[in-house]
Each structure stands twice: as C-alpha cells, then as structure tokens.
Amino acid sequence: MPDIRMLADNVRLVSVNTSRFKTGRISVTAALPLNENAAANSLLIYLLKRSCKEYPEFTLLNGKLDELYGASVSAGVTKLGEAQVLSLSAVCLDDRFALTEESIFEKCALLLADMLFSPNCKNGSFGADKLATEKRLLVQRIEEELNDKRTYALKKCVEYMCSGEAYGKAKYGTVEEIESVKMSDVYSAWKNMLSTAIFQITVVGGCDADKIGDIFEKKFKKIQRNPVKPQTVFIQKGRHFNRYEESFPVNQGKLVMGFRAGMSNSRDNIHAVRVMNDIFGMGTYSKLFANVREKLSLAYYCWSRFIDSKGLVLVEGGIDTDKEKKVSAEILSQLSDLRNGKTDPEVLESSKRSLKEKHTFNTPESICAWYASQLLDDEIVTPEEEVCGIEAVTMEQVCEAAKKLSIDTIFMLKAEGEEVGGDEN
Amino acid sequence: MKINRVTNEKLGETVYTAVHPSGLEIRVMPKEGYDSAYAVFGVKYGSIDTAVKNADGEFETIPEGTAHFLEHKLFESEDLNAFERFAKTGASANAYTSFEKTAYLFKGSENVGQSLEILLDFVQNPYFTQQTVEKEQGIIGQEIRMYRDLPDWQVMFNLLKALYSEHPVRIDIAGTQESIAKIDADLLYRLYNTFYNPANMVLSVVGAVVPDEVFEIVDRCIKNTGGKAAERKFVKESGVPVQKYVEQQLSVAQKQFLLGYKEELSEPMLSLEDEIASQMLTEIIAGKSSPLFKRLIDEELGDMGFGGDVFNGFGFSCIMLGGTSKDPEKAVEIIKDEIERYKKEGIDPAAFERAKRKFYGRYVMSYNDIDDVANLMMNLYFSGYEPFAELEACKKMTFEKVQSRLDAVKDEFSALSVIKPMA
Predict the structure, then answer these.
(1) Rounded alpha-carbon distances, angstroms, from residue A132 to A36, A47, A161, A180, A193
(2) How many domains does chain B fold into?
(3) Is residue B234 part of a domain?
C-alpha cells in the first residue's frame, strides 16, 4: 500500500517508496470538468511546462534539466471519464547516482512546484508571443492526429458515439476554441485550476516523500481552495446504432466498433468486464486474435480496448476496406460465442494469468500511472487488490458481462484508391 | 561453462556472462526488488541480410523481408503454437525484426524458468508448411500496408533510399508485397538453418532471476549444432547520396522532413565511442536546450518534436535531423547554417558538459527498465562490446572527440526527405 497524505482540501499525496529504481518520478495531476474551458486549460499546462520565473525561457529551463543529469519534465492532457486531466511530471536520476553531493529529486520537486505556482507571468500575462507559439503548437498537435489513421479512427468513433455527452468533447478543445482563447482566459484558467481542480501528487522512488509533500503543502497553503469534483455520466446501453465513414487516400482501412459495457460507474462489475474484454480481444489467446488474424488472415491487428472511466469497449482493426462486412460480422460472431459460453476454460485461466502480469509493474512510469488514474477515486486500490478481484471472476460472470455489451457506433475509415488487395485465402 | 561476473560499482549492478559450448552468448542481470523477468533471444539476422554465403563461398541474393517473415512463422508449431504455450505460464511473448537482428522475447513474473524453456524451444524448432506460409503472406501484407500509411516511417525510409544506393538498409524491414510473394517453406528452412544456430545468437535475461538457474536451463535446452556465426556482407558505399531530395504526398496535416548526413565508412562499424560522440554532437546541435531548437520554434519553422538522432549499424551510419514544419526548405537552410557555424567556431564547451551529464543520467536511468537493459546487453554483444561499455565510453568522452565528429557531417553527403499533404 502506498503512503497517502492530504496536503490540502482535495490535494492528495500518494507515494510509493522504493529503492529498486535508478530514478525518481513526480507527477502532478489536476482534474477539471471537461467543458468549454478545455482549450484554455490545455494551453495553460503547456505554457506552464515551458518556463517559470527563475528560468523564463524554455532553452534555459531545458539547460537546467540537462545539468540535473538529463532530468525531464513533461506536460499532458488526457480524459479521465468526463474530466480533463492536466499533468506535469518530472523524471530524474536518483540521488544515489549523482556525481556530486546533491539532491536531484528535491531540486526537481522545487522546479515543478515553481512551474505550477510561480510561472513566468507578469500582470496577468504569460507573454503574447509565448501564448501565440503554444496556440500554434497545440493546433498543430490536433491537426497531426490525422497523421496516424489508427488513432484518428478511434477518436472519431468516440466523438460520434458520445456526441451528446461531455465525453464526446475533444480533450484539447477544438481548433476554433484554441484560436479564440485570450490571455485573460489562460490566466483565469490558471487561477481556476489552483483553486478548484482535484489534485494528486504521485511520487515513486527512493526519496523522502514527506519532503516533497512539504514543498507542495507550503504552496497550496497560500491558495483559497474550492474544489469541484468532475462527474461522469454512464450510459449503459447503446441507444441508437449508427455507422459513419470517411475516406482517405491510404493503403489500409481502419474499422472501429464502439460498444457500451453496461456499467453504471467506473468500478461497476469492473473485474468481470476486464476479463471479458481481455478474452474478447486483448491477448494472443483472445477470440479476435485467434480468429480475425490467425484463422482468417483478415488483419495484422484486431484488438479490443476497455475504457473503464466511461464504460466503453472499442474494437479496432486495420483491414482491407472491401472486407468491412466480413470482419464486422466475424467480430460480432466472436462476441456471440463469448456470450454463449463458447470459450475454452483454459482461455479464462490464460486471461487471468495475463492480467495478473499486466498488473505487475516494473517501472516507475507504470506504478505512477496506476495510482494517477485513481485521482478521482476516494479509495485507492493497489494492483494486488485488483488482481484478487480478477482471479475471482467466473466464466458465468464473463458471459453475463459479454451479454451486457451493446453495440453503439461503427466508424469506418475507408482507403480510397486502395492498392490491389492481397490474395484471398 | 565458465561464468564471468562483470560488476559496475557505481550503478550497483552485476552481469553474469558465459559462452555455451554451442557458441551461444548468455548475459544475465538479476535485479533485486523486481517481480518480473524479461528474456530476449536474439539472432544476428535482420532486414539488411539480403545475401547469404553459399557452398562455393559466394554471396547469393535472397528476397527482401525474409528475416521478418521467419520471425512471424517461428511462433507456429505442429501442435500448440508458442503463444498458446506462453498462455499457460502467463508470460507475455513477442518478437521484432530490425535492420540487423531478429529478437524473440517474453516478460513474466511467475514460472519464469518454464517460460525460458518455451522461448529456447520454439526458436530452435521451426515448423511451417506451404499452407501456413501462404496464410502469413496475408497477415504480413496487412502489416506492410499499415506502415505505408505512417508518415514517420515513410519519411525515414524515403531518406534511406535517397542516401543509399546499394546498401540493403534502404529496403523496408518487412520487404514488399512482391518480395514476400517469392518466399516459400523451402527457402525459409534453408535460411533458418543458415542463421539460426547458437553461435549466431545471444540470450539476455534481466530481472527476477537466479543466474545459475538460467545457465542450467540453457545447458539443458540448447542444441549444439556445430554451426558458425553467419558472415555478413559489407556493402561499401561512397558518401554521395543517390539523390539530394525526395518527397512523397501522403494523407497528413502538415509537411514533415528529415535531413540525413551520410558518413563514408572504411570499416563496417563505427566504434561505440564514435557513436556516442556523434549522439552528443547531435544533442548539442539540435537538443531542446540548443539555440537551433529555439530559433526554429520562434520562427514558426518547427515544433516540440524537432530533434536529431544517430542511425548506424553494419555498413551504414548517418545523422538524421527533422520534424514537422510549414517550410522544410527554410528549416533545413537554418540547420545547415548552424552546422557550418559550429564547423567554423567549434562547439560550446558548456553545451558539451551539459550533454555529457544528460547522457550519463539517461544511461543510468535506462537500467530501471528490464526490457531496455536486456535489449541493450544483446545489442552490445552483437556490436562486440561488454556490458556497461556505453557508460564507460560516456564517462571518458572528451570535448575534442565530440568536436572531431563534426568532420563526418558533410553537406555534399546529405539528402532531404519531405512528406507533403495531398494537394
């Protein structure tokens, strides 16, 4: 069990003290409701990442990081259910390996706290040129989502599927929203984040977590906290089956099938749904791998992924466009087998073993990600506890969970002017 | 087997190495506090091996993409395939093929010994028929198509094709639809027997393992075939590229570019010292704390993804710099000016010190990850180095050495690859 300490109202420090790694990792995550402020929030986190009062240019900040033995700071924006999560993380060499006597870890924590609380900001302005640059880079980031058709197709399927829900909103906001953000919006977003976001500071490494906690506690003391907890709406059943398509001049088509998992919250029936999804299309023993790929040679990849924070299952495959019907029929037929208990009991055991391995974390990143994903949960679940739940799942529960899976939306990215397909087997 | 211990005190890590009578190199690093082990069984056979020595001692050409094709096929067997066998131990198994090697791997926390036996067994026991080979052509055909749509991949292979005229580093790792159509079961067996013998392989295991148990399993499971390490053909090329500029239109949002500087090699391989010196040089020129990086961002000619890398192996070596840009030609002009400036003025000693600290830190950090360490130890073996050689080379690196690597960056040996959005 990690150590947990509350630093302020809804500011939680979760620390895993271990000396097995050569690095220390600190991740600050802040959850806000996913709404029309998404664009300003996103710009904010990238502005905070590029400098701070002490190092007002990103080349200076990066130079400082290089001196700290190649420490790195990264910023990110993700969706966690219908929350927008902003993150600022630092990775650094553990103090044991420094060539001189110094605490790299503490220096990194101080730097991170400075970036968050003492940004390079004067009279409510982060600098017009800096905001313009971050707008350009963020717009580019969004436009580049088109480059990887696999990610693009997944994103489009979710957008269509959840079009009337907050979850359908793009995590960075839209290009139009980004372009219309004013300096005062970013400044308000900063104040708003410090005051209302749900925070977690996750620390993994051999450092003194209390010292890290003290650094942030001191900073939060000066903030008037009014936390607002983001809520996520769970839709249990697909309401309206729809199919959407788009064509691109590419070589391979991408099929995405979106299902609702029948959950009423992010922990509802979680273990059975996890195992069900794994048997459906995660492992090499899964139905989709064994049939769509290995038996029918229809795809190089055909996987299903489970988004617990919103109760969705997404199946994706890279296929020949003219085989869409054949592939989607095969996917549904495999789901039908799963519902009807036509699964080798050995596969259930394989799945449990595999899921247990997936919850055995060997890097600071994976440990940190596991706890950071629980930012909005009141109770922290350890990987061991999750595995216990998984091991108790029966084949009946898997079938029941599969029966609750309902198709909602299909998105097909068609390859137009596709090269002549491979030989039919 | 004689077992050697190599310890790096500062890092607090020890590697146990041995050479099996079959010629197989074994490297094991137990790591305290870790719950899982990662094992990789590598063969010195990659996509650049497009020629094999025949009985008359002459190199004979083989189709492109055979190493990758074999990688796919080895998972199959007459009864349970390798994936089904690993499913019983819980380990997750995978494989990959690169320019110079094929690697089979697993990661697991329980039944590690059993998983290791499966790994050694399935790689040593090929089984395929004409029918299963044809089935794989469909799957690999889809894999090739997937890569054709990835701009990052295309921009790099287009550059390699522009830089290299003869060297097989210019071909796609998976080959082409046409080349894989020429592959049949007989050919695969023949190539398997040429490359897959323990003297041409290495086993690297890291994490929650006991070295003696690994050596015992290897002793029991490795067949001594009496084979030799396969000889690789050194395709020597002049530094002059095939073409200075190449572009392709793809379904992308913005232009992407990659500028490559080819190095003329007299020996097949760069020394590790030269390789690291080139990497530090690239970091000094194009890293996130460099003046160049700031200028490209400020002038709206680059994004945070801009950067450089050293790409080298048997018979090839180049420095690549690139990213996304609205005006690649202008960005390249600035990059080239900056390199000329360094050639005239020399590199900044403070930037060298920063780069050295950064590299040292990053090398130490990479020992966190059992996947990374196992692959690193395999790669060092294939390049002829002992464990931890990269750390030692980094510590001894001098300013003069890094500076001297600028000589290998020549404008007349450069080429530019650009991906443009569809009109």
Answers:
(1) 20, 10, 33, 11, 21
(2) 2
(3) no
Distance CA B248, CA B422 (A): 9
B238-255 pLDDT, tens digit per residue, is: 999 999 999 999 999 999
Q: State the average pLDDT for chain B.
A: 95
Residue for token digits 């979850």?
Answer: A167
Q: Which residues of B fall within a CB distance of 8 Å from A362? A: 34-36, 207, 369-370
Three-class DSSP category at A288: helix
* Domain end residue (candidates: B205, B221, B237): B221
What residues contact residue B344 under an 8 Å CB cut-off, 6+ apart? none
Question: Residue A336 and residue A343: Cα distance in Å, rounded?
Answer: 11
Write phi, then psi, for A340 (nearest 5 degrees).
Answer: -90, 15
The amino acid at A392? A
Burial class (CB in 10 A: 0-12, 13-18, 19+), B423: exposed
B423 touches chain A (CB under 8 A): no
Those of residues 309-328 in B touching chain A at CB distance below 8 A are 324
Please report, for the domain that includes residue B83, its CATH number. Answer: 3.30.830.10
Q: CA torsion sign, A376 to A377 to A380 to A383?
A: negative
Kindly determine whether residue A363 and residue B369, on different chains, have CB atoms separated by under 8 Å.
Answer: yes
Record the pTM.
0.91
Which among B80, B188, B175 is positioned nearest to B126, based on CA atoms?
A: B188
Mean pLDDT of B367-387: 96
CB atoms within 10 A of CB A182: 10
